[in-house]
Amino acid sequence: MTLPKTNRQQGSFNVAAYLHRIGKERKELSFKYLKELHYAHLTSVPYENLDIHYGKKIELRLEESFDKVVNKQRGGISFELNLLFHRLLIDLGFSAILVSARHYRHGNLSPEFDHVVIIVQSLEGKDYLCDVGFGESFHYPKLLETYVSQLDYTKYYRFEIDVDGFWHLKVSSDNSHFSTYFQFRLIANSPIEFIPRCNWLQENVQSWLHENKFITQLFREGRITLTDRKLTIQQMGEQKEIDIFNEDAFLSQLEQHFDIKSSDLLRQFID
């Protein structure tokens, strides 16, 4: 497969700053290093849709996403996070492409370009799927090999290919009953191809991104998820839930658990 050329805009992307953001250093390329980068990203950068609910349009440009995630210590939606992580991998020397993925919501398959994932190619002779922009998902890259169960924390993942050539990533809690997580084709896409769907998702009130505010992040001890209705803390196998009744409570928990201050959040939208 021919890799698409990467558009390298001078001054808009700083590898050292990005690595510092996720607490990693540059190392020799290996699957072990890819696993470290993937996990470090998930435990450092939250998946969140706050811009959409506070009236700031997400501009799917590298410099905008870098400033938001790295300089301003924020998170983002799948397009922002996976496009940034893809660029980091490219600049570190990995061979990687962006691929459009479609996932199931309420039993229906989403439109093309509804999600973006990363395929890392020819790493120690094998290919891997990476995804740091899907919220509560797998922790480590998945080997792109069919009908092989891959345990990731408490869930099993495996790939299947249908008669039309679509790859299906399937998930199971018992390694017996699998359901499709999302599907994709091994066709490289450019970042610009995701812009129309990104715009629709944030501008259309029927989009699932408009249903409620949310921010979630994996931590070494578990996961913390905050919505405008509930705070959920999963820690060491136990789960605690706190109801959120108003905006002040939401902003208070946002600062406490994700270190995002309401003043910085609102100031960013004005800038």
Question: Can you summarize this structure?
Answer:
The protein has 271 residues and is an alpha+beta fold.
How would you characterize this protein structure?
This protein has 271 residues and is an alpha+beta fold. The protein is 29% helix and 28% strand. The protein has helices spanning 15-21, 31-42, 50-53, 62-71, 78-92, 195-203, 247-258, 262-270; strands at residues 47-48, 95-105, 108-109, 115-123, 126-130, 142-143, 150-152, 155-161, 167-172, 179-184, 214-219, 222-227, 230-235, 238-243. A hairpin with a 2-residue loop joins β13 and β14 (238-243). The radius of gyration is 18 Å and the shape is globular. Mean pLDDT is 92; it is low at 1-10.
Mean pLDDT across the residues is 92
Helix content bin: 25-40%
Tally of helical runs = 8
Overall outline:
globular
Overall number of structural domains: 2
Q: Report the β-strand fraction as a percent range.
A: 25-35%
In CATH, what is the class of the largest domain?
Alpha Beta
Low-confidence stretches: 1-10
Order of helices and strands: HHEHHHEEEEEEEEEHEEEEHH
Which structural class should the secondary elements be placed in? Answer: alpha+beta
Distance between the termini: 42 Å
CATH topology assignment of the largest domain: Arylamine N-acetyltransferase fold
Please count the beta strands (DSSP E, at least 2 residues each).
14
